[in-house]
Design a protein that fits this description.
With 245 residues, this protein is an alpha+beta fold. It has helices spanning 9-31, 36-40, 147-150, 157-166, 176-188, 190-210, 232-243; strands at residues 53-59, 65-70, 78-86, 100-102, 112-114, 126-134, 139-145, 224-229. It has seven helices and eight strands. The longest helix has 23 residues, at 9-31. The protein is globular.
Length: 245
């Protein structure tokens, strides 16, 4: 609740509306003996680790919103997770990637410009947040990751937060319920996602200070930069109490 303490009543009401819509989507699918992940994977012969679902990702060419679902861990509670992105070139603002310079290892080595191999232009994408799903197809965790994990183009926390505010999937392919659910999840947990994005930058900067001759953004020992456990039902109850409804 502390994260919501400074939010105005109108903002809390908007978040509650998103929470109620999330529960409605989840309950409607449950009434059909299905869930978000099952709908997204419907028609797949087999679910393979590391493979993106659906093939080629979900991409809205009007807004630049993008996501895919996959799995790469054998964890008891986790079935897999969404990676949610924004393609900045389709937003009205112009966003420039962060510029990093790594000192040379030897005296005669020139400085190496970090980011020369990052995707550029229409291929550039910014990772906003990951969403872990349990074996019942429900969200249990939000997380952020280091650059190398998704091969993204690295933008500052300020810019990624601006992209979060503008994220919207407007089309219905491949599953309209999943697209609407992602839109509302990002609105419901916007305060937590903002905090995770700031923690992402802080984690990378701390790793860079600890190893100034390395490239913190490519450091394989730094994968998840922050996470927070979530429950839509719990958040809706919190919002109702805060609003006295």
């Amino acid at each position: 609740m502390n994260m919501m303490a400074n939010l105005g009543r109108a903002r809390l009401q908007s978040m509650l509306a998103s929470g109620i819509e999330l529960l409605r989507i989840q309950q409607d699918l449950a009434s059909r003996r299905s869930n978000l992940v099952a709908e997204l994977l419907r028609g797949q012969d087999e679910f393979f680790e590391q493979q993106h679902y659906p093939a080629g990702d979900v991409f809205d060419p009007d807004t630049g919103a993008q996501y895919y679902y996959h799995a790469h861990r054998n964890e008891t509670r986790e079935h897999g997770h969404f990676h949610i992105f924004q393609r900045p070139h389709l937003l009205p603002e112009r966003f420039e990637p962060v510029r990093y310079v790594k000192p040379g290892v030897g005296r005669c080595k020139p400085q190496e410009k970090i980011g020369e191999h990052w995707p550029r232009g229409e291929k550039a994408l910014a990772h906003i947040v990951g969403v872990t799903m349990d074996n019942y197809g429900l969200p249990i965790r939000l997380f952020t990751v280091n650059r190398w994990v998704t091969d993204e183009t690295w933008y500052s926390a300020r810019d990624v937060i601006a992209m979060l505010d503008r994220f919207e999937l407007r089309h219905s392919w491949p599953v309209p319920e999943v697209n609407r659910w992602i839109n509302h999840l990002l609105r419901l947990y916007q305060p937590e996602i903002v905090e995770l994005i700031h923690r992402r930058d802080a984690a990378v900067e701390a790793r860079g200070r600890a190893n100034p001759r390395g490239d913190a953004l490519e450091d394989r020992s730094l994968e998840v930069t922050g996470f927070t456990e979530i429950s839509v039902e719990r958040r809706v109850r919190q919002l109702r109490r805060a609003l006295g409804t």
